[in-house]
Design goal:
Blueprint lengths: L1 H7 L4 E7 L6 H11 L7 E7 L11 E4 L6 H15 L3 E4 L2 H4 L8 E5 L9
Parallel strand pairs: 1-2, 1-5, 3-4
Antiparallel strand pairs: 3-5
Length: 121
């Protein structure tokens, strides 16, 4: 049960979604797909924004999680649900240098890449 996991996790899962694919509305489309799959605002908070990496757009969708902490296994399991709901991407351990943004405020950090074009919209 997602609400029980969120309670164990000490509250709602904070998910950052960044549009790295270049098409307007891609982050919002990803959020809509997650909510439709049951990752609702009841136990998830969302922060959407655009994202640019050096050299242009993100080629693929990546879902980052922190590799440490008491609830790291629960967060990784939740991130796997994100990948499943989106139908693309992979879960990787967060590395600030690679992601280019701090993950201090988020449990799960999603960069929606160009591979999502035509899939999410």
């Amino acid at each position: 049960d997602d609400s029980a996991k969120a309670a164990k996790h000490q509250g709602a899962y904070a998910i950052a979604i960044r549009n790295g694919g270049g098409a307007d509305g891609l982050a919002g489309a990803a959020q809509a797909k997650l909510v439709a799959a049951g990752l609702t605002e009841d136990n998830h908070t969302y922060a959407l924004d655009s994202y640019a990496i050096a050299g242009g757009l993100a080629p693929t969708t990546v879902v980052y999680v922190k590799g440490t902490g008491d609830d790291a296994a629960d967060v990784k399991e939740e991130a796997e649900k994100v990948v499943s709901a989106l139908g693309l991407g992979s879960v990787q351990t967060f590395d600030e240098a690679t992601a280019g943004e701090s993950m201090d405020s988020f449990d799960i950090f999603v960069i929606v890449g160009k591979d999502a074009l035509g899939t999410l919209q």
